[in-house]
Amino acid sequence: MKDVNVWYSDNHALKNISMTFEPNTVTALVGPSGCGKSTFLRLFNRMNDLISSFRLEGMVTIDSQNIYSKEVRLDEIRKKVGMVFQKPNPFPKSIYENVAYGLRVNGTSNKKIIDETVERSLRQATLWDEVKDSLKKSAMILSGGQQQRLCIARALAVEPKLILMDEPASALDPISTAHIEELILELKKEFTIIIVTHNLQQAGRISDSTAFFYLGELIEYNLTKKIFLNPDNERTQNYITGRFS
After folding, report:
1. Strand partners, 6
2. Could you give all domains of the chain from N- to C-terminal order, each with its CATH number?
3. 195: alpha, beta or left? (left if phi > 0; alpha if psi -120 to 50)
4. Could you say which residues of the chain have pLDDT below 50?
């Protein structure tokens, strides 16, 4: 991401952001509500495009490809980028069809390939053993934590390069949250993950790097250990220690 500025009409939502994300790492985005974290996250799958007043300047690249170039097809971008939202949002379909959905939309009809991908994705999301005998049942029978892992499996099925997570555990109980955190640490072996979280302890537990945003500006971006133990900016220090006003 290079020299990125975002406006919604006259509101300058993100200001001169430049960042690089390394493969197979977890990056946490932290900062007070309304500071631009979710806008930033949604630049990578172009979900902000759905807002008519949205305007972008600067460059966003994945594997050296400018994803805002006119030549780029949106469906190709969204295959590369999986998204997991704050609240679990399974489709009102069977557990199997939730995971198979992305494959079918992208033109895969081979049942053997779909079966194998559904099993692989559910295993990657550490859900297979819990649902393997219930694949034809509605996803709505699952608990909140299971539904969120199902949504992660759905994102994994199309084999993305990048997984975006917008507070994926904020609606879950502590045990389900621990499951999601363990899963994130396992998934980074194969994927690059960017996560928005308001839970600083969670950022400390799971991320390799942390970025602190405030009023649309990137205040500090560094290794998580450095941000939490010895930040360069006083505003970062105040936010991390709870003295932020």
Report:
1. 14, 56
2. 2-240 (3.40.50.300)
3. beta
4. none
